[in-house]
Amino acid sequence: MTQPDPATIFAMAMFIKSRCDGAIKKDYVGYNAPEAAWFPKILGKWNAEDAPLSMVSEMHYRLRKYRKQLSERFDDETLYSIFGDT
User: Fold this and answer.
1) Which domain holds residue 44?
2) Domain contains 1
3) Tens of pLDDT along the chain (86 residues)?
């Protein structure tokens, strides 16, 4: 699989962040507890244009577990282009 588009990865991360309560409740919305701190820190430090490729790859890897939530905002074609069949 080719490297995912950084703009799409950042848009996905921002979408999940917009729904996150900081993992206060186990509501299956937003990030889990470890990532509730990690993603905002990353999103505050970089944007899609200047993030190192290694960081975009790490975000891509971590976002895989949020595919169901992402399907509420992103169409199947976009999700497939980013995550494949996983």
Assistant:
1) 6-18+30-83
2) no
3) 568 899 999 999 999 999 887 767 777 778 888 898 899 999 999 999 999 999 999 999 999 999 999 999 999 999 999 999 86
